[in-house]
Amino acid sequence: MRRDAMLFLALGVFLLAIAVWQQIPTTLFMLVTASAYALIALGLNVQWGYAGLFNFGVMGFLMVGGVAVTFVSYPINEAFWASDGPFMLFKALLAAIFGGVLVYLATNSQRFGIKGKLRTFLIVVSWATAYIVYRSQIDPAARLIEDEAGFIGGLGLPVVLGWLFGGVLAGAIAYIVGRICLGLRTDYLAIATIGISEIIRALVKNMDWFTRGTLTVSPLPWPTPSPADIVASGLEDATMSTVLARVGFLSLTVLMIAVIFYFLQKAYEGPWGRMMRAIRDNNVSATAIGKNVTKRELEVFILGSILMGIGGAILASFSQILDPSGYQPINHTFIVWVMIIVGGAGNNYGALFGGVFIYIVWTVSEPASVLLFGYISDFSEGAGIGAIPNIESRALQMRVFVLGLVITFALRYFPQGVIPERIRTEK
Amino acid sequence: MMNELIFFFNKVIVSGAVLGSVYALGAVGITLIFGILRFAHFAHGDMMTMGAFVAFVLASIASALGISTFWPTGFIVLPFAMVITAGLALGIDRTFYQPLRAKGVKPVTLLIASIGVTLMIQGLIRLFGGVQTRSFFENESKQLFRFDVSWLGASRTVNVSEPQLLLIAVTVIAVVALHFFLTRSRLGKGMRAMADNPSLALVSGINTNQVVRATWIIAGSLAAMAGTMLALDVILKPDLAFNIVLPIFAAAIVGGLGQAYGAIAGGLIIGFAETMSVFNWAIMLRPFRDNLPEWVPNDLSIVPTEYKLTVAFVILVVVLLVRPTGIFKGVSS
Question: Which residues cross the membrane (chain B) (predicted)?
């Protein structure tokens, strides 16, 4: 415990040093983003640390959160509501429901005594019919909306509501994904979740009527007063208003994390957490003592994904832009895994530490490596070899390499992470 | 009618075979590694890119030395690139995977380690190579063969580029060679035995280390082959194969993980499925245009082109659900 406190203290000192080097507004910017990542890391810790579920589709859930908050909080697009768009979308929704019912009937046809090849045939036909019916409704709707209104816009509701909706939507998608994939073994689960997150990315990138695709949606509103609001209310100093606005945003995210952390920790220490660890460590014996392993795993998968959805929504709100092409597996999936592995899987403090620490290191390694490469370049120029061409873009790649090195190094030398899970024995 | 068929052949059969060959070569490596070492080697895509970059460096050296032949230089240096990449693959295994295996970690840990390796290879390639795209054909021209098929009554020609023909040819050669290696040689038989039943293979005196080395050599050289041929066909860029590593996994899983022949079939299935699903089938109806009812739309592609890669994931998910062991029964981990 004292060691953990020292680690967090060291993190604080590190942050102070960053604040001196990179100035306070930049540091605050990093801290807000880091807090969102800490929430995401907590979500992955619930899935991987508590229950041993292998989710490599973090990016997909972050995108779902981003899309959800855009839809809820972006101002209303009058052109869309004035057009035929809503009615056509309603028809598309009906078509989707019709297709869903058809598929449901076909998959449950064994209740009416339809079995074997015939049932398979019915399922395939029902999926194909559902797809064709849905496409026949959604395609003209999408074309109309894109032509007349650009995209459907938002609902203009409070941002915090959008964050919650991000969590709910991510949870709903996690339910579907979990129902499909959780029976798979770890390697297959990993590949399947990566695949699903890529499907989500392709959809978000190309559903221009909903997300504006590569055109991006901005500016998304903030839940707390933005720098512009503060300037408008009379504070002239631009730096000061930026700092104040970011402090406001940060206090909201920190408050959220504190509440969520408290309950996660309680759940971990309680019977539910013990049961989860039992399932993770030996699911055969957990089944034998009557635990419904599949259901519990689905539960924990949904819980973790809700946290990821909220985190993704916070990320999008804070950066004020929904940019589908900005989502990359390296920045949104793999880095979260590094946070968990380095911080310590199974320990919420570890996830918190890893989330903040790795994000800050990842961000400051950009100016740091540019600086370092500048020195090397000066040196090589002095030595007569010549300067390094395109220093900036090359230096950025260095951190991808370092991230990979950190993963392999951590797995080999401290696989438990810096704040490892502590197995409590009976008092 | 003939013209539409030729169009279909160019668009679907040729591109499907090309894509399928690349997927198949990659999937064989993934499936062999999974069969022998029991983990999903995620860094395989970047191993392909690495092989392509090695070939590019060798080709640059060759053209600087003034070596120029009838064949594309990138193709001439392919055997050397394969050897070097196989060596690099062995080195990666020795440095990153072997110590973890020695500690007896779970396969999942190896998968995470392979993601670390992916990031390292990506970082290094971009560090030294930059982020720009490169072409193997800066100093020589890429030949496009137009086969005149007027004897079939078509005015269109069958179009295949030289790299595409070479790709299909080397894939066939590699597959035949692999077949003979796996069925005739002692080492190949040992590999199959180990994939089927590791403990039985161990007690029957198969040299495990040798089998592991052979696996990496085959996987590495096939990855270099696939990467180089893909770069010759399209263009060399740092994320050349990272983008297709998931379709390759889909191919390996569809074919049944651990099954070399399954991986080849899976690669071709995924390749053709992708090209067929984005093909606009309305073109095939064009000759009957006058007799068709009004409501037949002009676009009858199954999915829009931008969802081409998504097809592989959908197939992957469906196969995982319906038949997780793949079409050929695969190993379980």
Answer: 12-37, 49-70, 76-96, 108-129, 165-182, 214-234, 240-257, 264-285, 305-322
